[in-house]
């Protein structure tokens, strides 16, 4: 069976492309590193792929606002390609900087290119947060978290601008439509807005969300950093058959794409 194709999008400052590439290849996809300029020149086309992966990092050095410049490239030079990709029902995952890009294109929360209704802003702690966090996986129609619903997973965060923020009505709509996929949880496994379990102060402890189709998902934590047991600091004390928590997200995406 032909492997689903993943476009791992690169540009200046992206630094989690290699791990994202590795995670999707391990999950059974055929990945390509594609620089945004290759899409802009026509050398590469989004339509050649089943999944668009926006990796983490510091695209364009986080100048203006983290993810902003790449978001502008996507909603201007690549608007038609991106719209066609979304309308064809394909998958998009945005991890950390990639999530910041997705909210600044308007693809999240409502697939409205160019209409920004939410943001990821500076952490309440006012500094870069880089450590492991625990996330509750909510019951949603998100393709990436199938069969993970109700579980608590451990995933790393590494960001300076991770606080999810929006107006009260938009937040209520996101909640009412069941678009919140991940929430930061404390030691009692319940969602918290309290530091340090919530590393940035995100409203409603929101760590990731999807659009209403469940095919576009963005999250601040890095699942690609936990697709091998030995990536966890306690791996020596874990059973040999431990399934790394981040891996299921990539496996779900590839399984869905195989059926497309
Ligand atoms: N790891 C990342 O993708 C970081 C995203 C962004 N540069 C921030 O610091 O918030």
From TrEMBL:
Its main location: cytoplasm. The keyword DNA-binding does not apply. CDD domains: GATase1_FGAR_AT. The active site is at residues 96, 222, 224. GO terms for cellular component: cytoplasm. Coiled coil: none annotated. GO terms for biological process: 'de novo' IMP biosynthetic process. InterPro entries: Class_I_gatase-like, PRibForGlyAmidine_synth_PurQ. Part of the FGAM synthase complex composed of 1 PurL, 1 PurQ and 2 PurS subunits. This is Phosphoribosylformylglycinamidine synthase subunit PurQ. It comes from Pelotomaculum propionicicum. The gene is purQ.
